[in-house]
Amino acid sequence: MFKFPVKLYLIIFSTFLFSLLAACDSKDQPKADSIYLGGTIITLEDSSPSAEAVAVKDGRIIAVGNRSDILNFKGDKTHLINLQGKTLLPGFIDAHGHFSLVGVLAQSANLAAPPEGVSQNINDIIRLMKEHAASPQAKETGWIIGMNYDDSQLASRQHPTARDLDKISSDLPVLIIHQSAHLGVVNSKGLELLGINEHSENPPGGVIRRIAGSQQPNGVLEESILFKVALEVIKPKSVASLFNLIKQAQLQYVKAGFTTVQEGRASANNIKGLVAASAANLLDIDVVAYPGPDFFKSDDAFLKMMKTQPHNYIHHYRIGGMKLSLDGSPQGKTAWLTQPYFKPPAGKPRNYAGYAAMNPQKLSHYMQMAFANKWQLLAHSNGDAATDEYIKVLTATEKQFPDTDIRPVLIHAQIIREDQLDQLKKLKVIPSFMTVHTFYWGDWHRDSVLGQARAERVSPTQSALKRKLRYTAHNDAPVTLPNSIMILSSQVNRITRSGQIIGKDQRVTVMQALKSITINAARQYFEEKAKGSIEVGKLADFVILDKNPLTIPSMDLNSIKIIETIKEGQNIYRKQ
Fold this sequence. Notes:
8-stranded mixed β-sheet, 6-stranded mixed β-sheet
């Protein structure tokens, strides 16, 4: 009689049992809404930096791995999304910007220099503003508004004046805002309506520039006086215009691959607008607001707003903390430095080094408010004198609140010194660099603002990495338009407008640059468990690029195109 070999029997039985269990596992596991495959997937996870496929269900990532394993999550209704050789990454995260102002820019005359605009002289500005005079924005606000002129890129290397803007209109008020957003110019009619004249004194933290040899305003306004004027002039006058502004802003960000953005130093009107947009389900991306307490009528009004607004997302909107501003901009020569500007602005003495935008007492008061309420604190500081003040006050405040971790963020930090980076490491401060300065103003910083030695160190990303500071990077939109790829190339290549390398020793790798707008930026927002990398359990926030930034020549980074932007598994932008 034939006897079935025991060993063979066991092998057959084990195979059957394994197949049965595998079938049960496959049957029991969730079926994906969508599976991405067929291209390069960069996860930004150090332990597993790449994958062949990603499965998504209910807006979250349920599996990451090789193609065959992930296809086990395929069901009858699963969408297989073939990347066709393109590159999938986590959605980009805006570490600092001004969401609503991006919408204002979209509705205003674009006065930027190439490559973002065409203005190369004051006559170009006058022509563009005249063309904009009949716009819906001008009709609604009663002002002709232009944004992002840059004196460093004008043939005269000078700011326009009220007399220049009078050529646009002598009957209607005119306002143009500098690309730094820290200076602006008003025509004579605008000065008259604002009540700014030879008797007007400079407000704290601001300057009314004068005609040489007199007290007569020349139309140029700096810092606090500009903010006061601009916030009133540019605010939407109707719900319809508010919602249009928000839609315009959102479009600019999603075209650049951003899925989380910031409303930095938000005003009371900004907050009201975001609340309304959230309630109307207008937001497709997450917007995190950091109101500026100095933009509110009183501390009580600010505290009430902070304690009644959502600190967790409601329809893609939440409060993240508060934002302070310690000085101005280096390109506008209002940043507060310890050493004089290489070439001071017209009419300023050789030892001019900028000025503080906030006194130490007020800075300390607001810092204590943030720590006492456990609100994250963002502080704008460009110049090293402003950063000295920040470090001094923060050190004292942290001693009062030794166990409070609010992950303070130093915004811009353009002219930060090596010893200051040491202090940031000690104080657990996150530096967020506006790295695009290397392209937009690298030449200007070297030749006019800072001189060669200091200009080489703007946005010192490599110095930060050597201290294991997990820095982030940003456009500071609308100062520069939302442009994630420019953020990457400006760190990796550090090429100026004229094609020269500035700060060769501060260059970083593409992967390090990618982290600054993904996983590091998620951590800055306390959201590293939900965003910033492609990992099981995180939100399905993705961006699809036409090329792999890790494999193309670094000098070709700016040729990369954003193909799609996906928020929580839903496509919110597709390049036409």
